[in-house]
Amino acid sequence: MSFWAARNAQRRFDAGRTSRDGETAGLDARLRSSEAALQETRATAQAAAEARSALAARMEESASAHAEKLRWIDTAREQLAQQFQSLAASILDAKAERFAASNGEQVGALMAPLREQLQQFQQLVVESRAQEGESRAVLRTEIITLRQMSERLSGDAMNLARALTGDTKSQGAWGELVLERLLEVSGLSEGRYYETQVVLRDEGGETRRPDVVVRLPGGRDVVIDAKVSLTAFERWCNDTDIVARDKHLAEHLGSMRRHIDELGKRGYARSSGLASNGIVLMFVPIEAAYLEAIRVDPKLYELALRSDVVVVSPGMLLGVLRTVDHVWKAEARSRNAEKIAERAGLLYDKFAAFVQDLQRASEQTGKARESIDTAIGKLATGRGHLVGQVEKLRQLGARSSRDLRSLLPIVDHDDDEGEGDAT
Description:
Layout: H1 2-163, H2 168-186, E1 194-196, E2 200-201, E3 207-208, E4 212-216, E5 220-225, H3 231-238, H4 242-266, E6 276-283, H5 287-296, H6 300-306, E7 309-312, H7 314-381, H8 386-395
Helix pairs in contact: 1-7, 2-7, 3-4, 4-5
């Protein structure tokens, strides 16, 4: 029993060993296959690494060569730019020299009128500025002396008013004298900027004789009247009684109002021979007479304006006359400015004509250069050029003491047999 059991156990052991040996053999075969695959993979990886190294080396070499080419291109571009700039400068210098040599006299003749116009224009500008500066200096001086003169005239008038004893004719002569002095110091010229004792006729044919007619730019006139009565004011100055003085002052104010109304009714604006806008300057030759009337009746000035009358004292009238003088001077400067503008227009036209002539000269110079280049091509550089044909004659035995090749830049054409025209 135990024998059979042992035998069976031995058989099972042998069968298990046989099975294990088979499995071991299969594992060995798989191991050898895996090792072979591993060897192949390693070989492939090594080949790939070598290929990558070679590719990297080629890429580095290519990049280095490309960088070298870029540096060469940059250097060549800079050299070409410098050469082109130098060549262009040389060409421009050569053309400028040729143009200056061939057209110097023509340009000088064209520039002469332009230079003359510029000098005249500059002279007008300098004269205008000098006149303006002188006018400003004179105006500053006159403003300083204006008040002094007004005060002196007022003092003289007051002293003379005390001397006048109610003689209306004497008062009128005094007023005209003061007016004449103001006109003399105003800077205005009699006969040109103002006239005295002008005879006018109104619409009804009645004669009017204003004391002074002042001319304004633009053909306008201003009338000055100096016939106001100062009899009541003279009494006010000489009387010492307060009540009487008040009466005389009221009479003086009434006299002023009546004269304003009379001047408003004369209608100087409608008189023949007068380009007036209707405004009349009523001249009061004594400053104090004007001031007292305005002090008593502040609306007197407004009343006069409603009748187209402006009441003026010596100081006020002198200011008006000086203003008229400066208006005339400004008119003269304006005419000078118009002359300057006219000169500037002539200068502009002359300069435009000069530019046109210069452009035509440049175009003609360019065409002449093209013609010269064409002629040189036919002579020495173009296909079948004349010098080549003549040179062939010398080569064939023509006797000559000179060599054309030393005189002209000759271009040889291998296929040049004399046919065809130079271009």
